[in-house]
Amino acid sequence: MDPDTFRSDIGVDVYWRRRMAALVGVLVVVAVVAWACSATGPDGESKVDAQASASPTPDPLLALLPTTTATPAPAVAPQAAPKAAPADRTASPAPTRPVARPRRPGDVCDPADLVLNMQGLGEVYTGDNRPRFVLTLVNVSKVMCTTDVGPRTLEVRITSGADRVWSSADCISGETENLHRLEQGIPYVRQIEWDRRRSGGDCAARRAVARNGTYVATVHSPRLKSRRAVFHLR
Q1: Contact 158, 195 (CB under 8 A)
Q2: In the CATH scheme, what is the code of domain 107-233?
Q3: pTM (2 d.p.)
């Protein structure tokens, strides 16, 4: 190489870089040509295409195995929904409950709104002292009502064991009904005095004097109950 070559204006580094680039380009061209020759067969057909077009050889063992054909399952027809039974047009409609009328002042008292009580004014009565009792009836509703407080409806009865000794309903003449207006919370009060004699159905007979002993006074009224008053005659 001529030593004057390096004296040009290009410089030594630039010169060798150009030489290396040219050498690399030649090597790339040679590699591409060699790859193309190896991929092509002697008749010019590509090896990849030849392998792809070749049909596979059947295996003789597979030919001896029995072949099965998949049978599709029969389709199940959807069942029709059961028809609803026709409505019985002859059936009578359900009965409706009557609406309760609001209570008005002066209506007949509801027994559920009444509180009945009777209390004795003593426990022991000696000599000629007569037993006395106080009967009360209270309306606990919010509306004034009317009820019968007569001696038959509010019957005071005195007994001794199973013996019916006296009743306020015996030997009553004339009108026995006594309608009374009960205001809310204001009690009806009645005092009862027993003359210590027996009573019964024969009002013309002479009434016998009750013996000394223990007695019980109660009020007998339809659908109403009261406390018992226990007392003694001496």
Answers
A1: no
A2: 2.60.40.10
A3: 0.55
